[in-house]
Specification:
The protein is mainly β. The protein has 6 domains: 143 residues, Immunoglobulin-like (Sandwich); 143 residues, Sandwich (Immunoglobulin-like); 126 residues, Immunoglobulin-like, CATH 2.60.40; 206 residues, Collagenase (Catalytic Domain); 223 residues, Immunoglobulins (Immunoglobulin-like), CATH 2.60.40; 76 residues. It has 6 helices and 63 strands. Strands 22, 24, 25, 26, 28, 29 and 30 form a 7-stranded mixed β-sheet that branches. Strands 31, 32, 33, 34, 35 and 36 form a 6-stranded mixed β-sheet that branches. Strands 39, 50, 51, 53, 54 and 55 form a 6-stranded antiparallel β-sheet that branches. A hairpin with a 4-residue loop joins strand 24 and strand 25. The longest helix is centred in the middle third of the chain and has 15 residues. The radius of gyration is 44 Å and the shape is elongated. It starts with a strand and ends in a 13-residue tail after the last strand. 45% of the residues are buried.
Length: 957
């Protein structure tokens, strides 16, 4: 839109087509490019008569002012037309097209608001009358109107000069000043008499100047204006009336009008309104006045209207506030303070610069200044997505302890302070997310590095309600930190097979709290997926992308999809129902990164990036990860107590060359089912791992059962069948049931209807170990060559297929690693150099025929303890993260992680701020020590102790 102003000044009448005087009706219209009328002016000289060859001021009345303000559409402007027509008639007060004696002609001006050369002085005419004579010409001024701007304007009315009072002697004069404006620019509509004056009741006379100091109510007026405002003057005389007016006068001395606009300096300053034209066509009077903008009232009156305590996302609606989310202990926390500047927004925007403040935690246990000064503004103008619109404080992670915290904030500027406001925050201790680091290579793409794995996964605390340091604890599978797969990850079969492989690796390691994420380089094609999870078995894989990592780990922690992008397996209780976060998100350590409420939740299939976490999933995860006893749980985050319970049952350290039943009390059963109900069974395996708690998912109820030959159900359990997307045609299922030798069939049912069954072989697999059969055959410093043979003694035809696994464990049951899974050959080479150390190790070959499981075992051998490995996070600084991992003992955290500055111990724990090292260049290293006293030191580089950033390596080094 483009606002325009047309000021109509004069009409010069050449010929009115009558022998004497007559009445005239003048009509001016403004049309936009579509022909729509946007403004109109009419004039008939206050019902007076007009004569040839005379100039008249177009002093419009209050109904049809001679200053027109109108909008011409288009961006940034448009084309408009000004048309004028005039008619005369001796008897009609308003001669027009339907009632006139003479038509004095028409004129038109076309203008383009985008062309300055077409603006300015306007001449309409001269026209041609209906008798072919020159009719009239209208002059005016066409200007663009600046953007509306609210200000207070002071008007001072000074003098009135009377040229002709239309009386032969002294007379009384009444002068009236009014202001008119529509509602605009934050100011209300104006229709107000500003001043009336009658020379204190004394008479006036021609050609004299009179001061307006005695005007009523005052010659000085302050107006709140928001755009073009018309100032209109009119005067009358009467010999006998002390206040001549439009209702009682002998002579009308004329009227005049000007426009003032706070956004247009050219309309402000000193003014002369007039001279007017009397009803006898003489010069009547003029008024002198001034207009000036008053400075904005910028005295701040700061008021805190709300406080938001957030670690990623927050239910909060200023200024009244709302329910604060529960938060996680050990996590950096941003406190956003919502302020009202206390300044009228119409006064220069109502802003005040340089506002700072203080935060006080728990009565003074921690205090902080605001991160940066801000510009406070009226609270209605505060945009939550703009971090600079709030006064922000950072509570470091080490100050965020479990329990209830009281946070007091106050703002200040230019010696004035706001109201203090105190809020209460609930910080809960959370257990760490335990992740088994597995890096995947394929025949064409190498595995991502360990540093890349951590660079992706270490971003999880940005989204999750977990501690910034120690919120993730990494495990590694000895000898399987990197695995190679030949599975086709572009189709469902290959993806399912790969999840089978991962589950087999985890079988003797994980529990419900330990999750495998096998990270695949983004160069590996995986069809239309970025990752995939097997929910109940806590295994997943996916590309090296932080949102994919968080998404699949979320599934393993029990989250379903948010309803955006068309996924299946949707959580019907998710709010908001469109699958967006619904709340503004922020990163406390990177407060400039603000995530609008319109982005998709990280558990959705929304295509727009980036995604963030909504309040619904934040609370779900917090409830899942919260510990019992906040203080104890918080301490456990960085100092986990090593478990004294063996990971697997103790194993007799004796040679078992002929297969015997595997001692697991459960049997793991799994397979795949199509949408139409076709079932494919995978090999079942006896295991010591207990069943996971059953999980409820939307849709039909599926169960896995074991039956005897008579059809009696010996054991059953529900199983979750999840189709993640409409394109997915086959889903995985699985269950762990008590093992029974009487099993005859394993059955999958949907809502009680049998879909498919697997016939159980009559006995366990029979095979024999061929090598090694004695300890001297085992090269403990090299590769163990395992060889075995199937026996098939007395097995009926058709003989079932065997699937083999290779496991290394020890007589104490402190570890069990499966370097070989889903094997069909009868040989495997096991590299012992990567295996954990123990004085009594054994290698096992495990075979399953689909349900029954047997094993053989090598003689005992000793492997030396392996030193720990450093798992370092992003090394750029200033905040460094690291933990260790021991092949024998697992993760190394807490005080067993030591930071070295220039070779000297400086700190312990999972994180170190390089800026604590002090100014100068420092060599930083981290050392991890396992419970046996074995340690490994890893240099991280040279760092600038002032800014905490790693320095580049000098050329040639």
């Amino acid at each position: 839109m483009t606002l325009m102003r047309l000021t109509l000044n004069t009409l010069y009448l050449f010929e009115e087509e009558e022998s004497g005087s007559t009445r005239l009706g003048l009509y001016v219209k403004v049309l936009d490019n579509s022909g729509t009328q946007v403004a109109e002016f009419r004039w008939n000289r206050r019902n007076g008569e007009v004569e040839d060859n005379f100039q008249y001021p177009l002093d419009g009345d209050q109904e049809f002012p001679s200053v027109l303000v109108f909008d011409i559409g288009g961006e940034p402007g448009g084309i408009g037309r000004i048309t004028v027509k005039a008619y005369t008639d001796n008897d009609e007060r308003w001669p027009d097209e339907g009632h006139h004696e003479n038509f004095l002609g028409a004129a038109e001006v076309v203008f383009d608001t985008r062309e300055p050369s077409q603006l300015g002085q306007v001449l309409l005419g001269p026209t041609t009358t209906d008798n072919g004579n020159t009719g009239y010409a209208v002059t005016g001024l066409l200007e663009t109107v600046p953007q509306h701007r609210f200000r207070h304007v002071r008007l001072v009315f000074k003098d009135v000069v009377v040229f002709d009072d239309e009386n032969s002697d002294f007379t009384h004069m009444g002068l009236y000043v009014r202001a008119f404006a529509p509602e605009q620019g934050g100011a209300g509509a104006i229709d107000q008499e500003l001043l009336r004056w009658n020379n204190n009741g004394d008479r006036v006379f021609d050609e004299a100047l009179f001061p307006l100091a005695g005007g009523t109510p005052s010659p000085v007026t302050t107006l709140a204006v928001g755009g073009p405002t018309r100032i209109w003057v009119e005067a009358y005389t009467h010999d006998d009336e002390s206040w001549p007016s439009g209702g009682a006068y002998e002579n009308h001395l004329g009227r005049a009008m000007i426009t003032i606009d706070p956004g247009d300096p050219d309309t402000l300053g000193r003014h002369v309104i007039g001279p007017t034209q009397t009803d006898q066509t003489h010069n009547g009077f003029l008024v002198t006045m001034s207009s000036e903008l008053l400075p904005p009232d910028a005295t701040p009156n700061l008021e805190i209207t709300g406080v938001e305590v957030t670690q990623a996302t927050q239910h909060f609606t200023p200024p009244t506030g709302g329910p604060q989310h529960a938060l996680a202990a050990g996590k950096a926390t941003l406190v956003r303070v919502y302020l009202d500047s206390g300044i009228d927004p119409r006064e220069g925007g109502g802003t005040v610069d340089g506002v700072t403040g203080t935060l006080n935690l728990n009565g003074g246990s921690f205090t902080a200044r605001s991160l940066h000064p801000i510009t406070a503004r009226p609270v209605a103008q505060v945009n939550r997505t703009q971090i600079q619109h709030t006064l922000n404080f950072l509570i470091p992670a080490d100050r965020v302890t479990a329990g209830t915290a009281k946070i007091m904030v106050q703002a200040e500027v230019a010696g004035t302070t706001s109201n203090p406001m105190e809020v209460t925050a609930d910080f809960r201790a959370t257990r760490p997310v335990t992740v088994w680091m597995v890096r995947v290579s394929t025949p064409t793409v190498p595995a991502v590095s360990a540093a890349r794995y951590r660079a992706v996964s270490d971003t999880l605390p940005l989204l999750y309600p977990i501690a910034d340091t120690g919120g993730i604890v990494y495990h590694t599978v000895p000898g399987l930190e990197e695995i190679h797969t030949t599975r086709d990850l572009t189709d469902e079969d290959g993806q399912g097979d790969f999840l089978d492989d991962l589950e087999d690796i985890q079988e003797d390691h994980g529990n419900d709290d330990e999750l495998i994420y096998a990270m695949v380089a983004r160069a590996v094609p995986m069809g239309d997926i970025g990752g995939k999870a097997r929910y109940d078995d806590h295994v997943s894989f996916g590309h090296d992308h932080n949102i994919i990592f968080a998404h699949e780990i979320g599934h393993l922690l029990g989250l379903r999809h948010a309803p955006c992008g068309g996924p299946e397996n949707v959580d019907e209780d998710y709010t908001p129902p469109d699958g967006r976060t619904g709340e503004v998100g922020v990163e406390p350590l990177n407060p400039g990164n603000v995530h609008p409420a319109t982005v998709g939740d990280f558990m959705s299939y929304c295509n727009a990036a980036p995604q963030w976490i909504g309040g619904y999933h934040w609370l779900r995860l917090l409830n899942t990860l919260s510990t019992r006893g906040d203080r104890a749980g918080e301490a456990a985050l960085d100092h986990p107590v090593p478990s004294t319970v063996p990971a697997v049952p103790a194993v007799p350290a004796v040679l078992t060359s002929t297969s015997r039943p595997f001692p697991g009390e459960y049997v793991r059963l799994r397979g795949r089912v199509t949408r139409s109900g076709t079932v494919r069974w995978a090999p079942g395996l006896r295991t010591s791992r207990k069943p996971s708690p059953p999980r409820t998912v939307p849709g039909p109820a599926y169960t896995v059962s074991v039956e005897d030959a008579a059809g009696q159900v010996l054991a059953d359990a529900p199983t979750a069948v999840v189709f993640d997307s409409a394109e997915q045609q086959e889903a995985l299922f699985g269950a762990r049931l008590p093992y029974t030798p009487r099993a005859h069939r394993v059955v999958l049912r949907r809502d009680g209807t049998e879909l498919g069954a697997m016939i159980v072989p009559t006995g366990p697999p029979q095979f024999a170990l061929h090598a090694p059969l004695s300890s001297p055959e085992i090269d403990t410093a090299g590769v163990l060559h395992l060889r075995w043979q199937r026996l098939d003694i007395g097995e009926p035809e058709p003989r079932p297929a065997y699937t083999y696994y290779v496991r290394i464990t020890n007589a104490d049951g402190t570890f069990a690693t499966r370097p070989g899974v889903n094997l069909t050959a009868t040989a495997f080479d096991l590299d012992l150099r990567a295996m954990p150390g123990h004085r009594r190790c054994v290698a096992q070959v495990i075979a399953t025929n689909g349900y029954h499981t047997s094993y053989v075992q090598t003689p005992v051998f000793a492997l030396p303890p392996r030193p720990p490995q450093v798992l370092a996070g992003d090394g750029e600084g200033p905040l460094l993260h690291a933990q260790g991992t021991s092949p024998q003992h697992g993760p190394i955290t807490g005080d067993d992680v030591e930071w070295l500055v220039d070779g000297r111990a400086a700190a312990t724990g999972g994180a170190f701020d390089v800026r604590h090292a002090g100014s100068g260049a420092h060599a930083i290293a981290v050392r991890v020590t396992d419970p046996d006293g074995l340690h490994t030191t890893s240099p991280l580089g040279t760092y600038d102790g002032t800014v905490g950033r790693r320095l580049p390596v000098p050329p040639g080094q």
